[in-house]
Amino acid sequence: MNTYHKLQENTFQRTDDFCEYCGKTFKSNRSLEIHQKRNCKGLTIRTLECKYACGYNTNRNYNLRRHYMQAHKEAHILP
């Protein structure tokens, strides 16, 4: 077995680890690490809401602008 496969084996070991912030369980250490880096770390993620009554939410300006152009084209004026 080469080094790459050994690394993959260790990185993706099956466990029943859970996130200490939100309690979600994961089957691999790597999945838990990715989840904690992206989502949990005890931080609240800034959420941008559509100013119209459709209820669309995102955390990226680009996605919100694209949503306005696609869903509210007739009423959309760039802020």
TrEMBL record:
SUPFAM superfamilies: beta-beta-alpha zinc fingers. Pfam families: zf-C2H2 (PF00096). InterPro entries: Znf_C2H2_sf, Znf_C2H2_type. Gene3D superfamilies: Classic Zinc Finger. Residues 19-38 form the C2H2-type domain. This is C2H2-type domain-containing protein. It comes from Henosepilachna vigintioctopunctata.
